[in-house]
Amino acid sequence: xxxxxxxxxxxxxGERALQIxxxxxxxxxxxxxxxxxxxxxxxxxxxxxxxxxSIGLICGAEVxxxxxxxxxxxxxxxxxxxxxxxxxxxxxxxxxxxxxxxSVLTGQDATTVHIAAILxxxxxxxxxxGVVTAWMQAHTDNRPSVVFSLSALxxxxxxxxxxxxxxxxxxxxxAWTFALESGLLAxxxxxxxxxxxxxxxxxxxxxxxxRLVRDGSVFWISMILLFSAxxxxxxxxxxxxxxxxxxxxxxxxxxxxxxxxxxxxxxxxVAPLAVYAQPSLAKARYNVLRVAGGMAAIGMAGGxxxxxxxxxxxxxxxxxxxxxxxxxxxQGAIAxxxxxxDAGLALLAVHLRKPAWLVGKSLLVxxxxxxxxxxxxxxxxxxxxxxxxxxxxxxxxxVSLGFVVLARESDAAKQAA
Length: 417
Known about the structure:
By secondary structure, the chain is mostly helical. Helix content is 85%, strand content 0%. It starts with a helix and ends with a helix.
């Protein structure tokens, strides 16, 4: 069993590393192909799609996987997967409609609406068919999912490279590759599960639907708030700064976001033994502080390297038209240590099963980011958004540290129960 779990983790980490590498190359080609203004349109539309996509997370893996593990019968699992798929499909349709309606009602330009409508097709495909990935995870075998995901990503990369080297500059042409990637991935997942699912009649189970929505609601709300907090800066920037400046800022955030993914990987790798397996709150708290300190050091070291190498990084990835990104990247890299520290500190809330804490933190960070940005962007332009980015991450660390300090044995007792 341990060997199987270790092999599964290796597959997941390998997929994440390859996805980050290929995604960086893809974004670089798009930015070079469409230029700063086109890239601003593309990234702004992606921000709208990301927030709308969070609506489709109504029944996440943290709800589905434990239930699948607890009910190993193929018939019971098929019954659960069908209902989870239906919930996600309805929520994803609602998310896509919300994307289109909000884009029109907020007076977005035709280019942004067009790109968002194309990119938003992924909302209809990724989350509903993602239940198959949850099913694989419950069986501790993510290898097929990894192969399918990387195959679809490679397909998209080839298409984008073909567009770039064909000197295509239309942003919507690149957007279609994301929709095609999602379609291919959904097709492969559906094919794989269809060959293995039991041939039984699925009857609607209202009670199960209610339980799935209820149990996943806190995580669902937290994801909506988290994704909104991550993208509120670009939503506030577009009507207040030139598109060229927004494109430079979006390029900066792409580099920092990809580096920040390393924090999630490290936290996921060390959490099971360092935090989740600890018998007492005192020991778990001590280890969380140690992990957070070590991760902060890694983030600071990486941030310093990014700041020093910013001119070379920007030139390599985006080209000379994104020269304004260099200064923004050097300033934003300062927050890297904060992001890594927060990822480590947040492990205690997960360990104690306190999703409401994470919801509260996400809401606070969202409000703080919006407040700082609304004050600084009119005065300092895109640099004001960088200030908001740093302030928001500093606030997240303070709140997470407060959770660690204020956690009590009663919380640990409830978690054990």
